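Private note to self, pasted from the team thread so I don't lose it. Backbone tokens:
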């Protein structure tokens, strides 16, 4: 454009008297036209036409300079330098620009050769070669090299773009193929992605849901039917704290007001809190929950119904074995004793199944009373002592036996806790029973320790121990360690699961520390209450007429062996 303006200006100046630059009118008109079109291209042309327009302008400029040269003395024209410059830039328009420059120059040569307006002399050819052909070669070298580099860059860019679009396509295919609902939410809480499964589940089309606030699409309520507030919403929590959340107890209200039970996993996007987005993955578990409920109901009814006749069989077998009520020979006694043991085992199994089904459907509600844990555990340990002795094991009860004294008296610590007696009995019986069961030789030690706020019951043994890879699964339903040590020992794998659920129902927790081959320590911890609080509660319970003295057992649990059926049913 600058060149065009210069030429147009030169024409005006050239028209002035005294100017030695002679610009003919056609050239000046072409230059003016070129200046105007360049200006239009520069100011208004859309990006996609820019290259074509620039090429057009360039041709106009070429024609201008060509006219200038031909009208002012051909190869001896003072404008030949301009033409050389122009030719060098011809390579900017790739081979097309070069070809046009080449054709124009050689056409001039052929024209001169054929029609002889300028004789093609030796000087003419030298000037022709230096001034007209060489710049084309130079242009080719400069721009071809640059073009190759640009081409490489463009190719690399295209390859990257292709790769990215392939990745995007693949992710979209995967997300769309997932049977679970997937919704991506940005930091503002707006929906940015919703897969077909989510659209089907929620009743919202992609078109309607995109860019909407997630609260109007994912309407969630808790297990008791209360709609989740902004603060309690798992999605809001994830956006705020950048931590994943899983919840299997939510209800979703669909667009058509249908209620579905939902399993929801929300994961944050980004590394720091607050998260830059959240991905919610969810599925309808209404039928799963219903199946689970029916299964639990079946087990519960079946165990309940079968337990009664089994208790009767156990009772009659007991009578048959009692010399005061029946006279049987030794052979029959041996058979009946085996039958009695098996029936007892069956009775325990039904009881366990009943407890499990209660734990599953939320009917495991504790009836807390004040318990002196040390006294209670002493009774439990005493009750199981015969079983330990029968296996040749030493069963120790540790509290107060570690030498702590107050003058001539041994100090026994006192820990009160507010727990369901039946639940605590079940837990401690299971733990001590396991310790005896899984110890071949050595001893089992029961201890009660604690601090101001907690009390810990621990059962230590010198038994077979637990392989580290099994430890995290021990408290799951029906989990049994299957190795050469345990294969011979019978069991259902329900004891520790029940212990965990009962401990949790009483605000406690249970854990294990073990060295495989050396022994294990199972511990269960409950919140402790002060002596004053215990006394006050006992008064309220009207279970004691006087305020209990520290050190004296408040509740006197019966030995485990003597528990009545009605108590175990109360679980
Ligand atoms: P049951 O339901 O009759 O109690 P169980 O004893 O097999 O059957 P859990 O009490 O739940 O079931 O124990 C689960 C598993 O944990 C056991 O099978 C056993 O392998 C392992 N286990 C439990 N207590 C101990 C222990 N004190 N020492 C070593 N292994 C143990
Ligand atoms: Mg057990």
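Design output:
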């Amino acid at each position: 454009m600058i060149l065009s303006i210069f030429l147009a200006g030169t024409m005006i100046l050239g028209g002035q008297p005294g100017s030695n630059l002679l610009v003919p009118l056609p050239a000046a008109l072409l230059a003016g036209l070129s200046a105007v079109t360049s200006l239009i291209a520069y100011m208004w042309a859309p990006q996609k036409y820019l290259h074509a327009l620039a090429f057009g302008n360039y041709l106009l400029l070429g024609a201008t300079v060509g006219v200038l040269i031909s009208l002012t003395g051909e190869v001896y024209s003072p404008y030949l330098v301009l033409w050389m410059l122009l030719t060098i830039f011809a390579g900017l328009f790739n081979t097309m620009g070069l070809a046009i420059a080449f054709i124009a120059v050689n056409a001039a040569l052929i024209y001169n050769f054929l029609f002889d307006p300028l004789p093609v002399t030796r000087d003419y050819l030298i000037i022709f070669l230096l001034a007209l052909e060489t710049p084309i070669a130079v242009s080719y070298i400069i721009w071809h090299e640059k073009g190759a580099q640009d081409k490489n860059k463009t190719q690399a860019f295209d390859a990257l773009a292709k790769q990215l679009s392939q990745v995007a396509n693949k992710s979209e295919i995967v997300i769309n193929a997932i049977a679970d609902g997937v919704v991506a939410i940005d930091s503002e809480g707006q929906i940015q992605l919703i897969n077909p499964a989510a659209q089907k589940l929620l009743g919202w089309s992609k078109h309607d849901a995109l860019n909407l606030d997630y609260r109007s699409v994912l309407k969630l309520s808790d297990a008791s039917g209360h709609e989740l507030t902004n603060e309690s919403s798992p999605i809001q929590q994830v956006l705020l704290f950048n931590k994943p959340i899983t919840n299997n107890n939510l209800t979703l209200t669909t667009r058509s007001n249908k209620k579905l039970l939902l399993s929801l996993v929300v994961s944050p996007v980004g590394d720091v809190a607050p998260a830059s987005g959240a991905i919610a993955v969810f599925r309808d578990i209404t039928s799963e929950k219903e199946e689970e409920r029916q299964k639990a109901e079946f087990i519960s009814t079946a165990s309940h119904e079968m337990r009664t006749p089994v208790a009767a069989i156990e009772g009659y077998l007991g009578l048959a074995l009692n010399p005061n009520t029946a006279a049987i020979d030794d052979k029959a006694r041996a058979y009946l004793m085996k039958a009695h043991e098996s029936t007892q085992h069956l009775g325990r199994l039904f009881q366990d199944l009943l407890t499990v089904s209660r734990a599953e459907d939320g009917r495991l509600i504790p009836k807390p009373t004040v318990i002196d844990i040390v006294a209670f555990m002493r009774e439990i340990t005493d009750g199981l002592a015969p079983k330990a002795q029968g296996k040749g094991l030493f069963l120790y009860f540790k509290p107060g036996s570690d030498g702590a004294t107050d003058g001539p008296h041994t100090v026994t610590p006192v820990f009160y806790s507010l727990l369901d007696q039946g639940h605590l009995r079940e837990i401690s019986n299971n733990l001590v029973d396991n310790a005896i069961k899984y110890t071949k030789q050595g001893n089992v030690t029961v201890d009660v320790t604690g601090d101001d706020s907690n009390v810990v019951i621990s059962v230590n043994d010198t038994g077979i121990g637990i392989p580290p890879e099994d430890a995290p699964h021990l408290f799951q339903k029906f989990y049994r360690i299957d190795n050469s040590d345990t294969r011979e020992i019978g069991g259902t794998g329900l004891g520790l699961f029940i212990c965990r659920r009962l401990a949790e129902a009483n605000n406690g927790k249970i854990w294990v520390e073990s060295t495989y081959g050396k022994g294990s320590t199972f511990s269960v911890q409950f919140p402790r209450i002060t002596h004053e609080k215990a006394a006050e509660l006992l008064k309220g319970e009207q279970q004691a007429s006087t305020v209990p003295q520290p050190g004296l057992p408040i509740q006197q649990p019966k030995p485990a062996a003597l528990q009545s059926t009605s108590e175990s049913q109360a679980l």
